[in-house]
Amino acid sequence: MKRLTFAFALGLTAGAVAPVHAMGQCGDREAIATHLTEKFGERNAALGLESSTGLLEIWASDATGSWSILRTRPDGQTCIMATGTHFQALPEVFMPTGYPV
Questions:
Q1: How far is CA 63 from the centre of its chain?
Q2: What pTM does this model have?
Q3: Radius of gyration over every alpha carbon of the chain, rounded to an integer in angstroms
Q4: Per-residue pLDDT of the chain in tens (101 residues, 90 and over written 9)
Q5: CA separation, residue 97 to residues 93, 94, 101 (Å)
Q6: H-type helices in 1-101, by residue range?
Q7: Number of C-beta neighbours around residue 29 at 10 A
Q8: How many helices (H) and strands (E) does the chain have?
Q9: How far apart are CA 36 and CA 31, in angstroms?
């Protein structure tokens, strides 16, 4: 009975913190990109290289406010690293005078 109660409580906890998308899910980049576009209306909003360890991308939807951060390793494996809501694109990035680019 204790095991069943623990399993039930664990299930409730896991459900309570479940992200909007399947965070930590890895696979083919094209399949993940298609899923984000078709299911959440997200598009590639920004990207950058993470030294030699991979490509980091931010996908977002202006319509729904959902966003996802993808990381693609040099071997081509893509993983959803984080997801969330209330995405807002900034109209201009403020850089103080003399800030190194």
A1: 17
A2: 0.68
A3: 18
A4: 444 333 333 343 333 333 445 556 899 999 999 999 999 999 999 999 988 789 999 999 999 999 999 999 988 899 999 999 999 888 776 667 776 65
A5: 13, 9, 11
A6: 2-16, 29-40
A7: 16
A8: 2, 5
A9: 9
Residue 90 backbone zone (phi > 0: left; psi -120 to 50: alpha; other: beta): beta
Task: Give CA–CA dist 54/16, Å, rounded.
Answer: 31
Q: What is each CA distance from 72 to 23, 37, 42, 49, in whole angstroms?
A: 14, 17, 17, 10
Alpha-carbon gap, residue 76 to 71, rounded angstroms: 10
